Amino acid sequence: MATITPPNIDPAVFQRALSELRNLVGDEWVFTDPQSELSPYLDRMSPTPPELRIPSAAVAPANLEQAQKVLQLANQLAIPVWYYGTGKNFGYGGPVPRLNGYLVVDMKRMNQVLEVNEKLGYAVVEPGVSYIQLYQHLQDIGSDLWIDCAAPGWGGVIGNAMEHGAGYTPYGDHFVFQCGMEVMLADGSLVRTGMGAMPNSNASSVFKYGYGPYVDGMFTQGNFGIVTKMGIWLMPKPPAHKPFMISFEREADLHTIIERIRPLKVSMVYQNAVILEHLSYSVGVQRPRSDYWNEKSPMPNEVWEQARSDLELGWWNMWGGLYGLPANIEMQWDAIRGSFADIPGVQFFEEGDRPADDVGWAYRTKLMRGEPNMSEFHIVNWRGGGHINFTPIAPLYGDICVKATNMMREIMNRHGFDYITEYVAAFRGVIKLLMIMFDPRDEEERRRAYECSREIILAAASIGFGELKAHVEFMDLVADTYSAQDNGLDKTLQKIKDAVDPVGILAPGKSGIWPGNWQGPKPPVDADRSADLPPMG
Hints:
alpha+beta
């Protein structure tokens, strides 16, 4: 397969650009062969075939100076770029551009842990640093600081924070615990935010705001600049830590469980995010679907019941952790137990209460003490490897969770998919994590996954559940659900985009933000694209 030329770029001009990039970073760090070198940038777990989003090339700069020169060249020639740090982001489209032909700027070689401050509890990292790398670095230097990581430990510290990602300790909202960043704009120029903008300040990673408007959030989940350095607050190892699990044997108790969680979370008795796994999610991590069901139709309740019995689980399984002084932890644990004790069939589990080979207990408790691992990624094996994640959020109320459960189960089952979900209570909201699991090698199943995804986005929005993230294929559709005040947010973002990236090269279409002067193709928003998809090659 020949190299794809970026939109509106003369092929001869692009070949000269590739030559300049090779001179800049070295031949071995410019990738152009679609069959081999560009293969890692394709998401083969997507509902759309990978050939619809093939980069024209990828370049991996070794340092900030090289990265600046790459962007300066792209800006000069109007070459659209898509960028990422490390990790894969499978479930949301992977490290691939929105459309064919973009140049991927791969920041994986910029992977230094630049600073760890033990006294003030923070680290400063580059975009290529993964959770596993940061954790190992802290171990190597004998640090008593904990990281907070996403479930797949290969994720990037900066990338996850910039995508509004979350983890499992009290430091679980990763952007909240970000502090200070250095950003590279489309023309290669640099800006440091917060206290970092002051030449003689050493407080960039200890105070978020500095003087004037707070702009850090502008560089999250968008396409206004590339974060090249970021401070992240780390949690001091607590005097004591108590992980726990609570199982509920009746699915119908969801309303009661959520209503009991809310006061505990709002009052911070629960210090970390409360994970309420549906049985389907718990089983999906621990067993392949083929152990129980080989039909394409959704697994029936009696089969789920068999899995529940085998793994000694509830229909709902709650995970949490308590941190601090031992006496305080026991008081909090008494309050939590008392809040759920009257629910019929409830069971409480502490360290040592679960079977020794319990995969769920092992990986969940590691995450709640900041130990990255890949156990949860086993869930992608449920049905052939294809999956799409959804993370809509709404107020932490039982009635809206019940409504969402009934609505989403009906949609997923009607399209032929198992209902796989968990709820995450974060501060005062509840995130509903949904997983559409399918076989991407099955064209008909892939099309159904696409159709199901569109319907879920619109159905969630209709009851006030707004998506926090979006698969690259559905970014425009999700952005269109945020249309209040005559699309006031979209219009504001458009003005910022055109001001900070006037040529329009940075990730066109990211989060539904397109350059005002964009002349290239756009995926359709108002029609189901699945009918136009070619067969898988």
